[in-house]
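Researcher: Next entry: FAD-dependent oxidoreductase (Planococcus lenghuensis).
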Amino acid sequence: MKKLVLLGGGYGNMRVLLRLLPNNLPSDVEITLVDRTPFHSMKTEFYALAAGTASDNEVRVPFPEHERLKIVNGEIDAIKPAEGVVVMADGNQITYDDLVIGLGCEDKYHGVPGASEYTHSIQTIGNSRRTYQALLNLPAGAVVGVVGAGLSGIELASELRESRPDLAIKLFDRSPRILRDFPERMSNFVQKWFESNKVEVVANSNITKVEPELLYNHEDTIPVDAVVWTAGIQPVGPVRNMKAESDNIGRLVVNQYHQLPDHTSVYVVGDCAALPFAPSAQLAEEQAEQIVKVLRLKWANEPLPDTMPEIKLQGFIGSLGKKQGFAYLADRTVTGRVARLLKSGVLWMYKWHNG
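Model: Predicted structure:
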């Protein structure tokens, strides 16, 4: 039996499973999925879990079941392509014929002193649960700082405003205007929502140090009761520690087939791959579609195409609480209730397709 091993049960590897199971997996191939949890977590919704507006059950779906799918729960210590093994934290080793690395990312603190020790995270479902507990326990009038005004920071700040109207929320943005790289219409809409809902956006910020209950922004000190860090990501440690070519933040360089150039039995999907796109669930799923096609050709001993189709992303959708949102689709800006309904529809469809 050929052995396909999937590291991480995120969006990319869930799409691999969806395309192969139940009826498209060759009879001589078995799959081992390795993940720290026994279910797929919808990372794009962790902001709602942390804010307390979604339950744990709402942000996860079960992995599929199949007689030739084995699920291993545990932490990964090392990935060794030259040896063809994955080393688990408990010392066990998993061998493979083909490997898909989809382990996702963790926070990148950019060397800011105290950031890793004194801030909360929404990068994993476990971290998001702990962040929820910390925010839930804050008294009325407490100050919450959200460092980073990308999509995660915006959604967390807005959702937290609806969950805890009694809190003071400060959103720290390095840019002069929120969502600087997108049309001003979108930026203005989001900025006005924050203003009308009394979320303070601190533009041109630069967090240089974090202490317990204190943020340093440039030369200013800002008292805070809790801080959530959403200001950058990097691949997880086992990926950064691999002996393979990577970019400046540790993402693995891949060829057009999403393989490591020196180890073509190893594929990389999602946040761990060095691609000219911002990391997203949509990107991981598009990669996974192509990886499945390559795997099926390989298993059938058929030649790979000279070129792979260009990945084309459709844009993104963000929420501002449960009633408003913003989207950038096909170079068009959509704001308000329609954008929020679009996001709700996408989430519903995702859950439906994934069981």
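Model: Note for the record: The chain has a mean pLDDT of 96.
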